[in-house]
Write a structure and sequence with these properties.
heterodimer; A: mainly alpha; elongated; B: mainly alpha; 81% helix; 0% strand; globular
């Protein structure tokens, strides 16, 4: 949960800093939303590709912890 | 409704839940008063930024310590300690405000101490839920409800803070927060936890990283949360720019925009609280990444207010959908001795 918190709340100021300087260099904040959106869609697509593998590994662990 | 709040049937989680709500609202009242005072006495955006930064940066650097402590010692005692520290800071702030003795450095120091305390308590706070939920099948519901309290406090907290600041004075805001910790501390003392499992000597933070390396689903979950946080942060950072320059409004418009994304977050936590099983959560995360990304791109060049609000609702909703789903899955998967880290 410490690592989760770092990824969740710790990344927000990092993102602000990166996008802030990005927007400063480009001269507008609008493209930044496009960049963030494209990253998110691309990541979602990647995640979709690996999902079957992850689901298999996840189910093994879940079945071990509460056998029903 | 009964289904949405089913984890509240357990006495211990109910105590914790309501203690948290009172304390969170108190924290928001203090937070708003603090930034108000910082701006009022210094008139400097730099000090305002410094106060925010010193409160946030411990979340990145001190959380590993919090995770280590959470696995090593009783999570309840860690929470009690941090609550007492935060209460003492609130009392000190109330006294200083009453004597009108504020200096910028007091504000920065107070904010840093609060940030540090928050960073140390956060892993315990997340992991503690498993110790007060006695029926394992209610865990996803309890995590979703926990996220609901954070999101609703974020939505109503600043409004209550504004009213309090207007109706009373600054010392009262800090005093209210100090009193609100009594509720949190009392409920923590009243809770019966499961026998704590963290008796074995906890290993290092590196042990948790090794686990992530060896178990791909956990690694992907953490990566998803990090990528999503980075992808939504423009919405938090640049919203004043859109409110002022693109939609040509003032602070009230900013409130409306933030309210739209906050309502989306609230709706997402309600939806997750209503779900009964873990089944299909992975697909929801993928879908939310895709939809959230499209909403962000669509928001970029849009100049119509009527379109901006639903897009913000979607963005706020998908963000909470992703991070809360990942929390639920992670907490269902990790071995007990690694939970805090």
């Amino acid at each position: 949960m410490a690592i989760y918190t770092m990824a969740f709340i710790g990344m927000l100021p990092v993102g602000s800093l990166v996008y802030g300087s990005l927007a400063h260099h480009i001269g507008s904040v609008k493209p930044v939303f496009i960049i963030a959106g494209v990253i998110s869609v691309a990541y979602g697509y990647m995640l979709m590709k690996v999902m079957p593998d992850l689901r298999r590994l996840t189910q093994q662990v879940l079945h071990k912890s509460n056998p029903t | 409704m009964k289904n949405t709040f089913r984890a509240l049937a357990g006495r211990d989680f109910k105590y914790y839940f309501f203690g948290q709500i009172v304390s969170l609202i108190g924290t928001w009242v203090q937070q708003v008063a603090l930034s108000w005072i910082a701006y009022r006495i210094t008139g400097s955006a730099l000090i305002l930024g410094l106060v925010a930064f010193s409160g946030q940066i411990p979340m990145l650097v001190a959380t590993p310590l919090g995770g280590y402590l959470a696995d090593r010692y009783s999570k309840r005692n860690i929470l009690l300690c941090t609550q007492v520290v935060e209460m003492l800071v609130a009392i000190a702030l109330a006294v200083i405000a009453w004597q009108q003795n504020f200096s910028p450095w007091i504000l920065v120091t107070a904010s840093a101490v609060l940030g540090l305390s928050g960073a140390i308590e956060m892993p315990s706070r997340q992991a503690f839920i498993t110790e007060i939920i006695h029926d394992r099948s209610l865990l996803p519901n309890a995590i979703a409800l926990n996220s609901l309290t954070f999101n609703s406090a974020r939505l109503v907290g600043p409004a209550i803070a504004g009213l309090t600041l207007a109706a009373f004075n600054e010392p009262t805001c800090f005093a209210i927060n100090a009193v609100s910790y009594v509720a949190a501390i009392y409920t923590l003392l009243a809770i019966h936890t499961k026998k704590s499992i963290s008796t074995r000597a906890a290993g290092s933070f590196a042990e948790a990283l090794t686990y992530l390396r060896q178990f791909p689903p956990a690694r992907w979950l953490v990566a998803t949360v990090a990528i999503t946080s980075i992808c939504v942060s423009p919405f938090m950072t640049f919203m004043p720019v859109y409110a002022k320059d693109i939609f040509r409004g003032g602070p009230d418009l900013l409130g409306t925009l933030l309210g739209a994304s906050g309502s989306g977050a609230l709706a997402a936590s309600l939806y997750l609280a209503n779900r009964k099983s873990l089944h299909g959560l992975g697909n929801r995360i993928v879908l939310a990444c895709l939809v959230g990304g499209l909403a962000s791109s669509a928001f970029a060049y849009n100049v119509f207010m009527t379109l901006a609000l639903p897009l913000l609702f979607i963005s706020g909703g998908t963000f909470i959908m992703i991070v809360t789903s990942c929390n639920i899955l992670l907490q269902s998967l990790v071995p007990e001795h690694l939970r805090g880290r």
